[in-house]
Design a protein that fits this description.
Blueprint (H helix, E strand, L loop, with lengths): L1 H39 L4 E5 L6 H7 L13 H8 L5 E9 L3 E8 L2 E5 L5 E3 L4 E2 L10 E2 L5 H11 L4 H4 L2 E6 L8 E6 L4 E5 L9 H7 L5 E4 L5 E4 L2
Parallel strand pairs: 1-3, 4-7, 7-8, 10-11
Antiparallel strand pairs: 2-3, 4-5, 5-6, 8-9, 9-10, 11-12
Length: 232
């Protein structure tokens, strides 16, 4: 009798072990399915803001997001690094939201002017880039600025408001003996403006100055004296 009872107990233990193993396998299978589902869940929406020069399509392409890959496996830092390789992009912020949403905030570099000789665009950080986006609404620098004044010129003109830069047709380096930082600006409205770099902030008041002219055309001297000479 002891042997029989012993055998029965052994059989019960085997069944319990088999049941536990099956439960573990079932749990692992469910866990695998859940993980696979999460990993394979694709990006559902991509929102891009702040870009004016570079199109949404190009930003998505640069970021390797054309096929809307796995949301989990997509790295925000990798997207940022890829986008910052573009010369026109200054800052990038990438945020991942629930339900597969990715928000990309772009800050582009300011375009200061285009060099007439090279047709290259000069950006606020002094980078010279090919005009691959066919940008025409920027001032054209028609001559060469002395190397000793160039960096300061870039620093100062980068502080001019973008909407004011759009009003400038051409920029001419017009130094004189008493002022090596003097420039002549050809405005789209038909006026001319002399400016020295130390006073270039006055350009941000151009709208106010222009309105005070009451339609008159001529030369505005902002380099010294701040006066207007009407064209004859």
């Amino acid at each position: 009798m002891v042997i029989t009872v012993s055998n029965k107990k052994i059989k019960v233990k085997v069944k319990v072990r088999k049941l536990k193993i099956l439960n573990i396998i079932l749990c692992l299978l469910i866990l695998y399915i859940l993980i696979s589902t999460i990993i394979n869940k694709k990006i559902t929406n991509i929102y891009i803001t702040g870009n004016n020069i570079i199109s949404d399509k190009e930003i998505i392409s640069i970021s390797n997001l054309e096929d809307y890959p796995s949301f989990v496996l997509t790295s925000s830092n990798k997207i940022k690094k890829l986008l910052l390789q573009n010369d026109y992009i200054k800052e990038v912020e990438v945020t991942k939201k629930i339900f597969g949403k990715i928000i990309i905030k772009i800050k582009e570099k300011k375009i200061l002017f285009k060099e007439k000789d090279t047709n290259k665009l000069v950006l606020e950080d002094k980078t010279k880039v090919d005009n691959i986006y066919s940008i025409d609404e920027v001032p054209i620098l028609i001559n060469t600025v002395d190397s000793s004044e160039y960096d300061y010129f870039i620093k100062k003109i980068s502080k001019v408001d973008s909407n004011i830069l759009l009003k400038i047709s051409e920029i001419e380096y017009a130094k004189v003996d008493v002022d090596k930082q003097r420039f002549l600006l050809y405005m789209n409205d038909g006026n001319y403006v002399y400016i020295t770099l130390s006073k270039i902030d006055n350009l941000n008041k151009y709208e106010e100055i222009y309105n005070s002219l009451e339609g008159k055309k001529g030369i505005i001297y902002l380099d010294s004296g701040n006066y207007f000479e009407e064209a004859k």
